[in-house]
Amino acid sequence: MSLENSLSPLTTPAFPVAMRASEWDRDGFWTFADAAKEATEALAAQKMKALENMPVEALREFCTQYRFFTIEYISDLALLLAKLPFGGLRSLLSQILSEELGEGDASRAHPAIYDRFLASIGVPRERLEVGLPENRRILGALTKELWERDAAFGVGLRGMGGECLCQTYLSVMFDHLRLHPYMVENADRIDWEFWTIHTGEEDIVHGELTRAAIDRYIQNEPGALPDLAQGYERSITAWNRFWQNIFDACAPQRSVVS
């Protein structure tokens, strides 16, 4: 599958992943990764604009569905760590995992912080476990692939795909989410902590550190490039499908904001 097919319907850089191992080099990989990130950001901006006018109940449901990514990302990151050799990338991702889990304080785990955001916008607790079946399937398939494939594929799938692409999507989501009339009117009582963490300087630094650590990993393991690129493209495809399913469920058509 090509990057162009993964990110349609937008026009995207045509950089094929289906290359022979001998054709990959470090510069070519980062050209691919940068083009993918740029195209993903454009696609996210196109889609997330709908958040500004979404009915309040649909907005609550939309935000609730993202919750399942945060939970599965943590479990998958732990699995990836078990596969990686000792080194800088393993140490960095273990630090990120610790932060995601609250560094020993369960109340500070990022899913718990996100749940407090959901509660503050009126999502009832009983809705928190109701995920879209198709997205549950997508997340389960990623975990299965992570388990079955080698570490390099996992680095692309959940190292780059989870950490770097996640920050891209969340930043765009937050830009539009906070413009919704309900969010503006209730800004003082909404718990914004999750967004402060994941759309601020801290998460930008995480992305930069992750990229640098993966670059060193590539330098040490140049033969890993094809699998790493394949894992990254798989993440792009799954991530875009995940969001499209949420939009299909929550924003099939515009209606008046309540």
Automatic annotation (TrEMBL):
SUPFAM superfamilies: Heme oxygenase-like. The keyword Magnesium does not apply. Signal peptide: none annotated. Keywords: Oxidoreductase. Pfam families: Haem_oxygenas_2 (PF14518). The keyword Oxidoreductase applies. It comes from the Bacteria. PANTHER family: 4-AMINOBENZOATE SYNTHASE, PQQC-LIKE PROTEIN. This is Iron-containing redox enzyme family protein. It comes from Lysobacter arvi.
